[in-house]
Amino acid sequence: MSGPRSARRSGLRRLALLSALLVALLPGASPDAEAEPDTEPGERYSNLQTEIMLHPMDGFSGHTLRKNEIIYNQSPFTLPLPSWFWWGATDWLTVEFDSLPLLGGLLVEPHLPVPSFNLRFRLFRGSGRQPSLAFETMWQHLWRPYAQEDREHLLVEREGSTVFARVNLSQPLSEHLSVHLSAGATWTQSARIENRGRDTFHGRTLDNSITPDASIALDWRVHPRVSLHASASYGTTFTYSDNQPRKMQALYGLRLAPFYRSDWSILRYLRMELPAYVIYWQDAREMTSFPVPLFPFVYWQWQL
């Protein structure tokens, strides 16, 4: 979620074009004849107060999707390639397919898909004020050294496999307010984290290293159309600057479901996450931030 502002504007234009094409071409993107106006917001239509969230603002929840529930996520900065999607294989197992590296790996040497998969297993589903508990693990393998962060004063380069495993807990505090806690560890086959262009060099190389991960997130579903989120984490995260060990990160922002009662399914299932963030790489002693939640990634969440 970082880069020149011109790249952001270009990405948003591409996303607008993609949305227009989806409206015109996708099955089910036309008005749904069975959809009827609702008298009570959230009573019939899925919305932000009723939907499962897996990684709200890069936190880790203790929930899994329902069987055959789908979430397709699209970042404007990866277009025209798709980003990633989730599938509820069962009520207790949710599977993620990282389509960007799987397809993008074909475009660069050695022209092989980059394996990248995430599994989340439900351990306990709470009801009411009871907590929900899940185990989550992810594996990604980079065939060649890849500069994931390539900035003026920062380099984060990874190679080989990265695996994380963690336990996630979601505790409801009220009907629409929850806290998400997560802890675990990451094994990194090879990573280089260092500054550059500075008078003093700071950096670290990780080889077959195991490092701790932990995060806390707050999740407030204030309205069927709007939810507010904040998170703080140490170590590996899933969404922003993902799979990078030993980084410190704080985010706040919101999710939107602006058209959740629309007769058009492509609009009814459309969701957005708008983050503001600060990320600190302690090994390089470098930081990046974006203080205002302006640039979203979008996703569609629906039940097959």
UniProtKB/TrEMBL annotation:
Question: InterPro entries from the entry?
Answer: TAT_signal (IPR006311)
> Which of UniProt's keywords are assigned here?
Signal
What is the native source organism of this protein? Haliangium ochraceum (strain DSM 14365 / JCM 11303 / SMP-2)
Q: What is this protein called?
A: Uncharacterized protein
Tell me which positions the record assigns to the signal sequence: 1-35
